[in-house]
Task: structure prediction
Amino acid sequence: MGIAIYMMTFALIVIGIYALVAKKNLVRIIIGIAILEYAVNLLLVLVGYKKGGMAPILAEKQTSLELAARAVDPLPQAMVLTSIVIGLSVTALAVAMAMRLYDKYGTFDMNDIRDLRG
Amino acid sequence: MKDLVPLLVGIPLGTAFLIAVLAHLKGVARLTGLVATLAIAVNLFISIALWAAVLAQPDAAEPIWAGNWDGAGVPIGIELVCDGLARLMVITVNMVAMAAIIYAAAYMKRFTTLWLFHALFLLMTGAMNGVVLSGDLFNMYVFIEVAAIASYGLVAFGTESQELEAAFKYMVLGVLASTFILIGIAVLYALTGQLNIRQVAAGLAAAGRNWAALFAAVCLVGGLSLKAAMVPFHAWLPDAHPSAPAPISAMLSGVLIKAAGVYALARVVFTVFGGTPQCGQIANVLILLGTLSMVLGVFLAVGQWDFKRLLAYHSISQMGYVVLALGVAAAVAARGGDKAIASVCLLGGLFHMFNHAAFKSLLFLSSGSIEQATGTRNLKEMGGLARQMRVTSFCCRVGALSIAGVPPFNGFFSKLIIVIGVAMAGYPVLAALAALVALMTLLSFVKVQRYALEGQPAPGRTPARESPWLMGVGMGILTLVCLLAGVACWPLKQYLFDPAGNALLRGVVSAARLAMGGTP
Result:
């Protein structure tokens, strides 16, 4: 654990950015978007992580201070839920657009999809 | 008055979903455009009323807690901040939205499934209001994303091959930008344990100089400049903005790159990082980005013959002016310089942002009107339109004179204030560059006038007919704003732009005072 998992998360982010920027196939770009989004979600969860922490659910006969001392931070988890929903809608829109582009151009290759230039 | 603020976000978002329902009911399905126009009109009224109410009692900028559930004495709710800058931005957003939706009533007739357009338009407007009112970094991110996703759909609205291609490129770079913004927010949360903008700022000021804050700043500034299409992050804008239908081009160029890009950038630099030791460095990055965009944008624009693409490149260049002015103001404030000089730069930047919203939207609307009448966007194939389309060409002329900075129009005053402010702050070379770019802009719009409006119509072309009156009304609103903002620049400065500038400057100045051992 420790620093290694952060490094791995950043490695995932870099892989996602590489797929987004360098790949020319629409499907691979969309996979890059998905990797990037999940890497950022992972980073958000890690921000709230606490070693040996428990689920942030208030048990019976437990004060909120006790919970706060032992549980992981629940706020990043709430943020991740929002982020997942946003990621889902972006991915769905990207797939829909890729399908329409395939209808128009007959290819998923960005090298052949270039009417716009200049 | 304060209770109305959440409605600015709530009405458009609620109406967007109402429209989706209305569109599937028999008999009322045709009314979606009217409902959307009414919602925007109410929003515009509220935003002007909010501003007018503050005139009576200045400096009422305490946060508003939408929801306001009782959390054992602590208010729990969604924090909205309606300070001077937010009031300026909601007026700008809703003014352009109003003109665009009236114009769209006639222009969008050529498309099918119009209710989708109205729903997405309202989602985008509501989300932009949310961005400018949000007092919380994560909410700001969510609203930026909602506005961005709605705009991806709107750019692709024609679903022709070019529009889809532009929308896909726009979306890929938009996702990249949002990812960087979210990483920046996550790092700031890890560092300070807060998401509220003021508390994050206080936490950062307490944390002092550290690498994590610098990393967060790089992510946020990079992501937001990608949203604001600053050079070298500008590649998507000249494809995306011209491909959209004209009212959407007006919204994207007129307000989206400001609300989701420049406004958020200003908040991050001034309010979040205003009290940190890195503020000076970030300000220098802004100055660099602004200057590059200003100069390269205009050079790329001069050679364009596609009218809408030319306008899109000018958007990059004009936003460069705004970011340059904001950067100079931040640099002056961060080194504890004269507050008056920083205020002059901010006044110029914010005034130019408002003016750009008015004249660039006006130009995009008139380019759509010309495109509809002549069937082309190529300037060489137009000509003689001044006699054939009197209303459109009058509006186009006012917009072109404003953006070119000809004296009685609004663009002249804001560019003059920026040049003076930048020179006073000790950057005479940048001030000279800004003046040079203004000259190049003028040349480029002389070309537009010469080829599109003057001269003879291309041989064998059927004479263009004037567009429907609703499009004229949409353009007329913005023409009026362009004309009035130039004449009334003094009262506007007093009551609209100075409070907005002070709202930004407050963060930096109080932090500088804290550093010298004073009270906040």
